[in-house]
Design goal:
The protein is mainly β. It is built from two helices and seven strands. It has a five-stranded mixed beta barrel with strand order 1-3-4-6-5. A hairpin with a 5-residue loop joins strand 2 and strand 3. Mean pLDDT is about 75; it is low at about 115-135 and about 140-160.
Length: about 170
Amino acid sequence: MASFNKVILVGNLTRDPEVRYTTGGTAVTELGMAVSRQWTDKGSNERKEETTFVDVTLWGRTAEIAGEYLSKGRPVLIEGRLQLDQWEDRETGQKRSKLKVVGESMHMLGGRNDSGSGGAPQSAGQGRPASNRSSIGAGGDEDHSGGRSPDQTFYDDVPSSDDDVPF
């Protein structure tokens, strides 16, 4: 049977990113995220909120960019996969485990002044206004159709006609 391991999280950072480097020189950043879910209780008609705290690991250029531009409180979208880390506690000898997210891409949300000291550089597509988010892939240098962003590729492939406009 085929399996699928994909996670998409939107939340705020609970701490400043910690950038480290492996002995091979690869950047690794650990993030903490608070992800909230809101709903209305049907019985009491009361608004409820539940917050889940998630550990995220980023690698390579994405890790370096997170360390440079992100700070505690900053909103961010992470796409990645779940990974189970297992180890033996040195003091008790008990087996321990922790579920975390390995981020494969990161989208910085909000403007330059959102809950942090550093802001992400904002980019504009060709002929389109600047977005209020920046997107970074796991390698930071992915090839998307000859250097065009996925958004540009999508809009270039969609045929346009005045007959399609509903007004």
